[in-house]
Amino acid sequence: MRRTSASLVAGALVAALAWASSPSSPAIALDPSAGVADLTQDINQILSDSRLTIARAGVVVKSATTGEELYATDAGKLLTPASNTKLFTSAAAVETLGLGYRFPTTVLNGGRKVGSVLTGDLVLRGTGDPTMLAEDYDALAAEVAAAGIKVVTGKLVADDTWFDGQRLGNDWSWDDESAYYAAPISALTASPDRDYDAGSVIVSVAADGDKVKVSTTPETDYLKIVNKATAGAETDVLIERQHGTRTVVITGTVADPYQEWVAVDDPTAYVSALFRKSLAKHGVKVLGPSVAGAAPSGAKELAKHESMTLGELLVPFMKLSNNIHAEILTKAMGRKAANQGTWSAGLKVSTDFAKANGVQLINMRDGSGLSRRDGFSPSSIVQLLSAVRGKPWFTTWYESLPIAGNAERFVGGTLRSRMRNTPAANNVHAKTGSLTGVTALSGYVTSAEGEPLIFSIMLNQYLSASPKDIEDKIAVRLAQFSRVTATSGSVQLRATDEGAAGDLECSWLKPVQC
């Protein structure tokens, strides 16, 4: 079974073609002094914001047409990129795996079928598909039943050996362990929604008279729910999985319905529970326990599900800045290149790809940017963005980047509420990045004269309010850039939509929809 989703394939093709590898217009042979000097002065003024007095700011702007560096400050400094890391991971993944790459999930016969009885083990084998839903595991169970199997005398074996056993990324914070954006990585996992937040379950609460009703998406008894919440006049509730366990404790008061995305402790065991439940629903009884292990050699395929293509997956991955997609793709690259589904093997692929494309300063510790030891310079990011314009897959990749000010969720993504009603709206294609004290924005913009520009803005170690508006002001100013005409007046921005995530991009706080 294959799932494709037309709603995920979005973006302006005309704009993308303008960013194709060949220069979209002849080199501009004009005296740059007026326009470039004006741009330099304005960006310097924007960066003089008092919030950056004690912070670190690196900015690079380059013409994609001429290769000219139009602006640079601290271009070579190693800065924390946050989710700008995904630019490197996604590009390396497309280069290594291909736009048509799919993740297969299979059910295997590990024994011998006699009538309706399978004497031996039933094996569920995964390769990391982050788009698997409970309904997909249910469909696999239905296929097993359709094959005439009613009883399995052996075990239900969950084969997650396509990846190694390291579940959490390098340097990830212990207090993120139960957060959906830092879910454990496994070759067998499941998502609760079509944002494909692999490795998590949605826990919902609602007042039911004087009690609080709890439900999960998908329905599962894998989590142990301890409900201490009470109905009240307002919703002030905490839903949190206790570290290292599958116990979710709910405290506080509930008036209006509320939900939280919670990472499971063990995706492989969670998927086993989902699949076993579906097998029972379809009349297949497994006599043995659920265990983790490798499929025996010679096991025969009973059922198979294939994911959407990587080209399609790029949209939820990049638009919504999905950390788990980045880490799964990192291990998938390692498996493809070195037959090792490990972070170290996959990060080597990403790093080698970057260096082969002219990037000199790079320190990758994970694929998503969740590690605070990830490091890139603004020049490194601009170099990568320049180099990939020559790739045959560039148009698809370019369209997967968030587009400023576009309210459509799978088009605007993490930029949907930013730079609306400005020259940057539906113009800037860029990757956001956010950690506490870190923000970054890197990508592409077309100037007022139609010249394609490449930029990277990295702001680190600020202590006060988020300076994302500084990124936006620079991006808008680049959209207004003219080599021969001075831009008069200050850059005006529409305020970010009410309810956005503030210091962190909206994808970090799941109830706040990007």
TrEMBL record:
GO molecular function list: carboxypeptidase activity
Tree of life domain: Bacteria
Family matches, as SUPFAM superfamilies: beta-lactamase/transpeptidase-like
The keyword Chaperone appears for this protein: no
Pfam family for this entry, one: Peptidase_S13
Assigned keywords, A-Z: Carboxypeptidase, Hydrolase, Protease, Signal
Family annotation (InterPro entries): Beta-lactam/transpept-like, Peptidase_S13
Magnesium listed as a keyword: no
Leader sequence residues: 1-29
Family to which this protein belongs: Belongs to the peptidase S13 family.
Descriptive protein name: D-alanyl-D-alanine carboxypeptidase/D-alanyl-D-alanine-endopeptidase
UniProt organism field: Nonomuraea rosea
Gene: dacB
